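REVIEWER CHECKLIST
Item 1: Sequence provided? yes
Item 2: Single chain? yes
Item 3: Sequence as submitted:
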Amino acid sequence: MRSEHFHSKNYGGARPGSGRKKIGKTKRLSITLPDERWEHIDHLIESKRVASYADYFRELDESSLTKFLEV
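Item 4: Structure as written out by the authors:
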């Protein structure tokens, strides 16, 4: 059977309100850290304490923002 038997013409595509919700603006950057720091971050990801590099740096940003707002 060909694939058009499984899908209608209305299948897929952009729909209002669908998809992952944005949490902010994306900016690409490079960060240079000692190997030990990267190994520590990798361990946190492997042990599922954080989900990803992005998650790690978001949490770091939130905690540092709180620290700076207290001053």
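Item 5: Key structural point noted by reviewer: DSSP finds two helices and no strands in the chain.
Item 6: Recommendation: ____
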